[in-house]
Design the sequence.
């Protein structure tokens, strides 16, 4: 199962690849949920979603926007920094047309509620679902 | 009843019941705790960036763009 997870997701960051590695912040089943949510929301909305989890340089918003510059115009980035307890949703020139800031704010609110309860994966999955619903079908 | 039997019945059995209950309540989380995050707890994992299945779309290939909008939050 874990091998399958590894083939269906890609890690762009600096972290080591593979799900078996103990430095992974998530268990294999959590990674499966994350992967499913990412794949489904990207497929349904046609917008490539990506999730960054890790520390952000201060100011965190600027740091998240800098990460976003490495993506494409229609991408949506969810940047979560558990240590700094901050989250940012970043949209680009094309994805902002489909996802107005109000929709993003609603998803951020739902994610905050889950994160405050210590449920990182649940919050991300909910946020992705709300953003994909807000963007509608491709 | 010998003193050993008395001890077994009045100390051994309650202790056994107590241990069974404690194991039922705390056992699972003591054996395996999958990196549970709690607000305020330190996060000492390397940064990770997860993207969707690359074949679903053309994939968010490393491109260049500018941020347009979005939302932020803290908890």
Sequence:
């Amino acid at each position: 199962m874990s091998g399958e997870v590894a083939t269906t997701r890609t890690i762009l960051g600096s972290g080591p690849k593979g799900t078996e590695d103990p430095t992974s912040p998530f268990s294999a089943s959590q990674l499966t949920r994350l992967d499913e949510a990412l794949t489904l929301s990207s497929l349904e909305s046609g917008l490539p979603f990506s999730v960054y989890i890790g520390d952000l340089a201060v100011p965190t918003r600027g740091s998240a926007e800098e990460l976003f510059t490495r993506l494409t115009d229609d991408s949506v980035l969810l940047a979560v920094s558990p240590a700094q307890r901050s989250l940012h949703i970043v949209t680009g020139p094309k994805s902002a047309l489909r996802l107005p800031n109000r929709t993003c704010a609603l998803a951020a609110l739902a994610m905050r509620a889950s994160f405050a309860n210590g449920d990182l994966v649940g919050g991300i999955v909910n946020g992705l679902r709300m953003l994909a619903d807000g963007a509608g079908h491709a | 009843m010998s003193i050993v039997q008395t001890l077994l019945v009045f100390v051994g059995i309650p202790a056994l019941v107590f241990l069974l209950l404690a194991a039922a309540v705390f056992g699972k989380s003591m054996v395996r705790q999958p990196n549970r995050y709690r607000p305020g707890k330190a996060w000492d994992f390397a940064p990770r960036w997860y993207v969707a299945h690359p074949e679903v779309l053309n994939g968010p290939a490393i491109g260049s763009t500018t941020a347009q909008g979005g939302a932020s939050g803290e908890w």
